[in-house]
Amino acid sequence: MNRFVGCRRLVVRDAMKDLSFPVLLMYPTHVPAEVVSMGPYALEVSLGAPLHGDPSPLVVVSHGSGGTPLTHRTLASHLARSGYLVAMPEHPGDNRNDRSLSETIENLERRPRHIRLTLDALCADAEIAPHLQPDNVAIVGHSMGGYAALAVAGAQPWAGLGQRLPRTRDPRVKALVLMSPATSYFVPNDALQDVRVPILLLAAEHDRITPRWQAQLVLDLVPDPARVTCTIVENAGHFSFLSPFPASMQSPGFLPGMDPPGFDRDAFHRRLERDVLGFLDASLRDLTPDRADRAAPC
Fold first, then answer.
1. Which helix (H) or strand (E) holds 158?
2. Which pLDDT value is given to residue 104?
3. CA 276 to chain centre
4. Less CB within 10 Å around the terminal CB: N or C of the chain?
5. Residue 170: which of 114, 225, 210 has the closest Cα?
6. How confident is the model at residue 290 (pLDDT cuts 50, 70, 90)?
């Protein structure tokens, strides 16, 4: 039978801060999809369709600062079509519509907690929980989403020298995909000593926002760099990891839609989908006998 992508919106409560935030969930279903408009984007999904299949690993996608979950819609759709449940929270105070907490210490504290709250909410949902493997989770993070992913996997964040932040380690996390991660909050030599999960680390050759040294920091500080698969994406920029934007949004004044000259974002994302799926299958489903847990020069 054909596997389609189901889609629904959830609301997760943060009782500590007395607020709620939306989460977009994509998942496998057998209900035929149709093209649905969400803002400027067109998604081929089946809205509100029932979940289908045996319990599957869960992937949480954490967007970058000032971003939106929909900028990772193509990767999320591909993973859902391949059998994963994919949750995409919109980080309150650090998204496209509200940047009141961007570049603040409070944002550093909130982002990892909201990933953990998203996991808790999905595991407690009577309809969703039977279809997920609650202790088999991967976090995909771009830029500040990469920061949050590392924090949830056991990293110790710092807001500055001598300013240690609360830890938010979640043992349910078994793998990380880091795309141009913001790692400057983990500078002390022991900041990543408890990050022991396999990592797919992707850095952009021409990234001026999170330069290559921030990816190298992961290789330098994790206890077992052999568990990190690192790739430098040639000619890519910081925003090249975002799903291709509609032609109407691709203008020099809109930096997230721009790439270095000659970079083919559409072709790259087809490769990105394959690479991320292969890594997750190896890390969460053990589907490949020769897992690529080998570090490459970053």
1. strand 158-160
2. 96
3. 11
4. N
5. 114
6. very low
Q: What is the pLDDT of residue 288?
A: 58
Q: How many CB atoms lie within 10 A of CB 219?
A: 18
Question: Which residues share a beta bridge with 228?
Answer: 199
- What letter would DSSP give residue 113? H
Model pTM?
Answer: 0.95
Question: Domains of the chain (ranges plus CATH)?
Answer: 4-285 (3.40.50.1820)
Which tokens hold the place of 279?
């890594």
Per-residue b or e along 82-113, where b marks 16 or more CB atoms closer than 10 Å to that residue's CB: bbbbbbbbbbbbbbeeeeebeeeeebbbbbbb
CA dist 194 and 228 (Å) reads 14
- Dist CA 1 CA 190 (whole Å): 49
How far is the C-alpha of 155 from the C-alpha of 106, rounded, in Å?
17
**8 A C-beta contact, residue 195 and residue 154:** yes
Compute the distance between CA of residue 198 and CA of residue 228 in angstroms, rounded to an integer.
Answer: 6
